[in-house]
Amino acid sequence: MIAVTMSYLLNCHKSLIVKKSYVTPMALSTASQEILRGLGGKWDHPVIASKTWILTFFSEGPPPVAVAHLRGKRVRAFYEEFVKLLDVKKSWDARALLVSAPGALNAEGVQLATNSGVYAILDGDKENLEAALGGKDISDVNRATQAILLGKRSRSASRECRGGVLELLSSRWMTLRELTEQLQWRFDARTVKRQVRSLQREERVCLRGRTISGEGLLGTPAGHYRMRSDLSTPTARNLLSTEILALLEGGGGTIDYREISGRLGIRTHVATASLRRLAKEGAVERHGGGWRRRKKE
Predict the structure, then answer these.
(1) Is the peptide bond between 62 and the residue preceding it cis, with omega within 30 degrees of 0?
(2) pLDDT digit string (tens) for 219-268?
(3) Where does the chain have alpha helices with state H?
(4) How do residues 187-197 score in pLDDT, each as one tens digit?
(5) For residue 124, what are the CA distances in angstroms to 36, 84, 108, 208?
(6) Residues of the chain with pLDDT under 50
(7) 149 near 128, Cβ under 8 Å?
(8) In the chain, which end has fewer C-beta atoms inside a 10 angstrom radius, N or C?
């Protein structure tokens, strides 16, 4: 849904303008109507922006409040209401609220609304509706809506979440917090945490290190990860040792510390200190003018 083209939006825009016969929409829930009545606005009222639109509810404020009621489950139904709100929001500097009937809004729609500065609320959710009308941060309100939607998803969400975690960890190591933030528009935090723990029990995900602040860095057992600026000293040291050993094994011969420094993008004194530490551990040895893996006896 999010990957919509500008031409599609413009077509929606053109097909909806200046409608002379106004059809009364299916009413909002009693709970939502009671809250909106307190603003003293108008229902099913034509609002002039760049074009004339019929909104479910509109109050001139201050601040102006524009409400569109999403009822249909089709993609077009979403964009019809969404275009109205975006235009009125821009022309009136209004708080734009997309209030959705059960089953009419999905996670991608909430994300698009958030990115566009539009509140996405489920009809009957009094707490979220009042928060939006009170000017609470859009991301906070929409995240609460997202959590409700995600909580209603089927068991397939667990499989999708596991796949999402493994896909992210295939290219970089991440903390649980970072994983949750990356997946927040698809899965709630509880689902992400539960699936990460399940993957750890299956040994498909493991703790690979820690950050300076002590957060655990998760990764796959065979994953090869690049240096991060926030690694703890022991983790950074272990990672550097692993990279040096891999470089020496792949080189098939002797490599001096300058080449190691250049290929790994580290300072020469860091490379030298790491080589000496590995030599003390018996993993590498000097040979000629450079270093090589120590042969097992």
Answers:
(1) yes
(2) 999 888 888 889 898 888 888 888 888 888 876 677 888 888 887 777 88
(3) 6-16, 30-37, 75-92, 107-115, 126-133, 138-151, 156-169, 176-183, 189-201, 233-251, 257-264, 268-280
(4) 888 889 999 99
(5) 12, 22, 21, 45
(6) 1-10, 12-26
(7) no
(8) C
Q: Give residue 165's pLDDT.
A: 96
Is residue 49 within 8 Å of residue 91, measured between CB atoms?
yes
Distance (Å, rounded) from C-alpha 123 to C-alpha 117?
A: 19
Which run of H or of E encompasses 69? strand 65-70
Sign of CA dihedral 222, 226, 229, 232: positive
Cα(188)–Cα(281) distance, rounded to whole angstroms? 45
Distance CA(73)–CA(56), nearest Å, equals 17
Check residue 15 and give its pLDDT: 44
Q: Identify residue 261 by its one-letter amino acid code.
A: S
Whole-prediction pTM: 0.50
Task: Find where tokens 């094994």 sit.
Answer: 249
Q: Name the residue type at position 89.
A: K
Residue showing tokens 């750890």:
200
